[in-house]
Each structure stands twice: as structure tokens, then as C-alpha cells.
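Lecture notes, part 5. Sequence design as translation. It can be helpful to think of inverse folding as translation between two languages: the language of shapes and the language of residues. The source text, in C-alpha cells, appears below.
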């Protein structure tokens, strides 16, 4: 059935969550743009076909580095505009937190494109710091060191200071400060220091417990004063250059942001009044991404824009500083989710449909000796109408329970049970159709519609590539990449290829609510591809090795005036890669399989030629993709 492209776009909410990066072309294919509402665009199906000809199969992660750069421009532009509008005295410095997406290509792209904006990096561990120290940054940009630190972490940070980087060591607890002071005296290096402040204010959404009095990180007021005394006693007070706070990721409500900024700005002002030249106020991360497009304070949305966020941060800090008569600090943000979420699209193909019940109603023949419960289910199928469907459906539910009771008592056969199941589901199908045309009954039969929804088997692992969907029920926009010129007539849930019942997506974005089914096209065995969007933040780095499914095939795509250019292809994990990750040595596996084949030769059950062939086949599998072919 032909459909208007605008109607299909509304079905999936592209205009609401897409931020101008996605559209549908006349072929009914999804198009991705390098910046919001850019006339240039790449047909995603053409990219998939191109990669297929190169032997790169689904599932695939597509990266669009231009979107990374555009998000950075949006954030920087928002703050620079606010600074100009409010005549703010400080500068804006963005940093990219590596924990959000530590892939080298992602971090290097930020630092390369961000040189003109003095964009830096935030790290929270020794491995992240080790990598960041070797990356080229703008001379004015900062490298913020967060997280709990031991002596080797602090020594490594000081190495960065000596090679010319603006490394700021953020003190998370008193023991770290004592180590910094000792190493500074020992090495002669005077590092730039920061303090993480434990605010009373909290964020909102799933991570609101990251802030507040019971937060994991941050120093209390008395501890901050103790840090200042310790630095003064060791003649290092001039090293204190930054105050930092973080009230949680994906803050959904702008009011919580304002409260936290106001409190942090007061702390900054009071410290400046102590004649301590703090230069930076790091407002942390938390800038929300509107995953569901509702622009509300729901957990998968945010009730503010990047510009409103910047305006509130800049205006609030300036107001407090004017009130306290202290200079405005330079502002640092760590808005990693906002920067990276849009740039990566997870592509998966549908392998098949898992049917609720297999069997055709017309093929069910009722015999004279069939149990009465089966006969009555058949009569319900014949007699159900738009006027009596509610009554007949309730009767069918009772008959189903009776049928299973009789089966458990051994009073009906397996064949009778199969007939009864087919007849029951036929009553359900007809009930759902009648209820769909009866507006007053739609809500009452929503559970039935969900029960009848198709289950589309998708070639990927939720646990590996979309862990937040499973772990915290994060909603991600999902839609077909083609056939968008046709009306989607099937309601479906998505199941992955793991052997775990939790490997399912049955919550989908909706402007007013959360849907438990997704509108898709009937699957008839031909290639059918879905895209899972806004998957660029956290998903890759937090994915696990459930069932030993490995990393995805990956392609980096640059969109040009006429089409696109695939600049890089990264092969996903092979079977060999995945088993080695679980500490199975390839040579030992080959030897073990070969020993079993040799034993069968010794017993006369295999020829030497066949045993050698089996070993070659076994070994050849190590280079194959871990996902379905």
C-alpha cells in the first residue's frame, strides 16, 4: 500500500528526534545529512549495498564523523552566542569525555576539528589518560583528569604537564591531594589542580543519584576548606585553577541544571573572595539528548535545547558573580552524550519472523470424536462478529484454560491440543481486528494486540551493541531504512540472536507515550533492514561479550555534494577474535578438535582424508563473522 512520505515520517517521529539529520527520499529510503537540514545527503540503502559488494555484512555500525563535528559546532556556538549576548567575561572550553566513546577515530576527530574551538579531553582512568597524553591538542585546550587516582595515575598526569599540555588534576578525595603535594615536591612539577564539589543539588532522570549529598564523588564544604589549607601550607595555593561538579548524565529537567549551576557558582565566588585565582568552572556533563522527540522531562527526553542550556549556564554564573563582585570564570562542559549520540547508526537485518502459533485455521478439521472443548472453540471461530467479539473472546480464554487442564490430566491428545491452539489464536486475531475498528475498545484490547504482535528476529546482540536498552530500558529510535513509501501494516517486537530471553526490544518511542510494538512491513523473506539511531554514546564501550558475539563491522562515511565516500571500513570480530577474548587459545582448540578427529580415524569411523577435511573446515571458521550470514 502506497503511503505519503510525510505520514511515514510522522509514524517514526523523525522530525521530533532526528535533529535535522535524517529524512526520507522519493525512493522511500532513509537519508542521512552531515548537518541539520543540509541539502547534501546519503541514501543509507545505497551505502549498505555498496558495503555488501565489498563483503561487509550486517550488522554494521555506520559512523558519520561530520555529525560529530556539527554537534561540537552546535555546542560551541550555543555557548559563544550566550557569552556575547550576556557580555560574559570568561571563555568557553569544551572537553570530550573519553568514557562516552573512547574509540580512537572518535576522539581524534574531536581534537582535529576542535582545534579552532580549543576543544579538549576529559579522562577518568589510567588507560584513558595514557591514550590522551599522546594525542595532539590545541595549546589552549585542557585535559581534565577525573576519577579516583593512585600514585601512578598522578605521576602520568604530571608527565602531561611537562610535555606542554594543560593537564588539570581534579582532586576527588584528600588522599589524592597528599600524593599530589608529595610528588610535586619530589619532581619539581607544579600541576594545575581542580576540586570536585559535592553539591546539595541533584539532577533529574535515571542518573539523579549521581548528585546530591550521597553522591559517590566530590568533596564536602569542610573538605574543600581542608584542601585550601593544605595547599596554602605547602605554598601551592596558586595551583588551584578549577572547580568541578557533576549532577548526572542525561539531565531531563532544565530547572535542576539552574539550581546546580547557582549553587556551584556560589561556591566558586566564595573561593574567589578568599583571593584564590580559580580560572575554570567545570559544569560537568548531563546535557540531555531527546531520544524520543517529546521535548519533555521523561527519562528518554529533555525539556530544553542546547541553546537554552548554554543560556542558563552563562546567565546564572554571571548573575552570581555580579552579585558577589568576582570575575566570571571560564566555563568547561563535558557534554559527551550530546556530542556523540547522533553520529552512529546501528544497522541490522531481519532474519525471519517468529510466529506465535504455526498452523492454518482452514486446515483444522473437526471430527465427531474430538473433545467438546475443541468443538466449542471451532464454533467460536465460526460465529464471532463485530457485535459479539468481546463475549466470544472471553469464552475463548476460558476454553483455552480448560483445554490445557485436560491436556495436563492426560484427557486430550497432542493433536487435539494443536487444533485447540490454532483455533484459539484465530479467535484472538479476529477479536483484534474488530477491536481496532471499535474506538471505545482499543485500550481494553491493547494487551491482546501486543500478544499478537509479530516477533522479528534481528541479526545482532542487544547485550553487545545496545546494552542500555536491556540494562536501563533506554529508548532508542528504531525504523526501517527502506520501503518507507509503503504503509507499515505489521505490529512487531524485536528479538536478537542471543540465547537469552532478555535479548528483546519491546519498548519503542512515541510522542505521547511508550509503545510496546513497532510499525513495520510484512516480512516475506526478502532483505529488510532496520536502523537503530542515536547509538553513538556509551553503547559500544559498555557492550558485553554475552554469547561471545564480537564487535560489529564498521564503516566511516563522509557525505559529499554528490553522494558519499566510505573513508574507512573496520572488520568486525571473527570467531577467532571472540574465543580468544574468552582466553581460548586458537592452537589449543585446533589441537583438541584434531585429537578427536584422530581418535575417530583410529576407531575406523573416519578416513584420514575425511578427518583432515574436517579439521580444515573447523579451522576455516575462525575467520568468519560472529553474526549470522
Amino acid at each position: 500500500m502506497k503511503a505519503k512520505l510525510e505520514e511515514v515520517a510522522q509514524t517514526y517521529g523523525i522530525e521530533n528526534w532526528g535533529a535535522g539529520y535524517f529524512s526520507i527520499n522519493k525512493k522511500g529510503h532513509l537519508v542521512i545529512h552531515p548537518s541539520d537540514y543540509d541539502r547534501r545527503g546519503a541514501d543509507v540503502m545505497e551505502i549498505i549495498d555498496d558495503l555488501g559488494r565489498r563483503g561487509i555484512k550486517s550488522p554494521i555500525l555506520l559512523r558519520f564523523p561530520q555529525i560529530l563535528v556539527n554537534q561540537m559546532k552546535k555546542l560551541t556556538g550555543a555557548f559563544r552566542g550566550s557569552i556575547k549576548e550576556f557580555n560574559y567575561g570568561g571563555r568557553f572550553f569544551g572537553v570530550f569525555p573519553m568514557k562516552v566513546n573512547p574509540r580512537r577515530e572518535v576522539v581524534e576527530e574531536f581534537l582535529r576539528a576542535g582545534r579552532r574551538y580549543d576543544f579538549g579531553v576529559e579522562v577518568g582512568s589510567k588507560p584513558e589518560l595514557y591514550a590522551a597524553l599522546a594525542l595532539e591538542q590545541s595549546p589552549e585546550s585542557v585535559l581534565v583528569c577525573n576519577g579516583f587516582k593512585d600514585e601512578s595515575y598522578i605521576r602520568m598526569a604530571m608527565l602531561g604537564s611537562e610535555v606542554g599540555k594543560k593537564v588539570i588534576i581534579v582532586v576527588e578525595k584528600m588522599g589524592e591531594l597528599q600524593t599530589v603535594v608529595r610528588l610535586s615536591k619530589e619532581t619539581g612539577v607544579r600541576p594545575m589542580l581542580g576540586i570536585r564539589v559535592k553539591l546539595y543539588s541533584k539532577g533529574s532522570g535515571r542518573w539523579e543519584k549521581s548528585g546530591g549529598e550521597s553522591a559517590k564523588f566530590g568533596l564536602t564544604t569542610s573538605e574543600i576548606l581542608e584542601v585550601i589549607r593544605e595547599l596554602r601550607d605547602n605554598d601551592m595555593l596558586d595551583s588551584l585553577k578549577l572547580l568541578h561538579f557533576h549532577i548526572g548524565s542525561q539531565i531531563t529537567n532544565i530547572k535542576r541544571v539552574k539550581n546546580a549551576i547557582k549553587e556551584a557558582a556560589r561556591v566558586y565566588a566564595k573561593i574567589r573572595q578568599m583571593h584564590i585565582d580559580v580560572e575554570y568552572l567545570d559544569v560537568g556533563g548531563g546535557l540531555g539528548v531527546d531520544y524520543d522527540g517529546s521535548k519533555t522531562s521523561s527519562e528518554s527526553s529533555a525539556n530544553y535545547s542546547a541553546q537554552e542550556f548554554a543560556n542558563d549556564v552563562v546567565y546564572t554564573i554571571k548573575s552570581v558573580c555580579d552579585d558577589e563582585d568576582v570575575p566570571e570564570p571560564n566555563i568547561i562542559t563535558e557534554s559527551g552524550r550530546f556530542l556523540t549520540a547522533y553520529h552512529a547508526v546501528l544497522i541490522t537485518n531481519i532474519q525471519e519472523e517468529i510466529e506465535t502459533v504455526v498452523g492454518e485455521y482452514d486446515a483444522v478439521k473437526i471430527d465427531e470424536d474430538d473433545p467438546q472443548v475443541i468443538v466449542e472453540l471451532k464454533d467460536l471461530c465460526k460465529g464471532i462478529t463485530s457485535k459479539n467479539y468481546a463475549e466470544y473472546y472471553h469464552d475463548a480464554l476460558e476454553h483455552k484454560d480448560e483445554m490445557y487442564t485436560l491436556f495436563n490430566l492426560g484427557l486430550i491428545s497432542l493433536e487435539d491440543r494443536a487444533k485447540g491452539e490454532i483455533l484459539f489464536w484465530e479467535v484472538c486475531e479476529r477479536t483484534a481486528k474488530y477491536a481496532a475498528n471499535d474506538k471505545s475498545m482499543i485500550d481494553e484490547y491493547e494487551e491482546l494486540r501486543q500478544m499478537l504482535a509479530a516477533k522479528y528476529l534481528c541479526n545482532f546482540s542487544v547485550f553487545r551493541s545496545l546494552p542500555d536498552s536491556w540494562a536501563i530500558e533506554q529508548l532508542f529510535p528504531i525504523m526501517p531504512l527502506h520501503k518507507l513509501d509503503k504503509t507499515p501494516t505489521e505490529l512487531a517486537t524485536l528479538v536478537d540472536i542471543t540465547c537469552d530471553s532478555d535479548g528483546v526490544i519491546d519498548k519503542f518511542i512515541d510522542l505521547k507515550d511508550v509503545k510496546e510494538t513497532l510499525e513495520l512491513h510484512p516480512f516475506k523473506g526478502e532483505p529488510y533492514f532496520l536502523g537503530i539511531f542515536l547509538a553513538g554514546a556509551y553503547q559500544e564501550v559498555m557492550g558485553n561479550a554475552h554469547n561471545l558475539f564480537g564487535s560489529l563491522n564498521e564503516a566511516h562515511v563522509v557525505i559529499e555534494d554528490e553522494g558519499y565516500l566510505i573513508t574507512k571500513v573496520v572488520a568486525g570480530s571473527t570467531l577467532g577474535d571472540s574465543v580468544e577474548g574468552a582466553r581460548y587459545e586458537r592452537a589449543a582448540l585446533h589441537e583438541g578438535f584434531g585429537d578427536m578427529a584422530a581418535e575417530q580415524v583410529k576407531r575406523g569411523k573416519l578416513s584420514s582424508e575425511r578427518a583432515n577435511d574436517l579439521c580444515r573446515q573447523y579451522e576455516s571458521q575462525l575467520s568468519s563473522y560472529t553474526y549470522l550470514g
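The translated text above is only one of many valid answers, since several sequences can fold into similar shapes. The chain has a mean pLDDT of 93.
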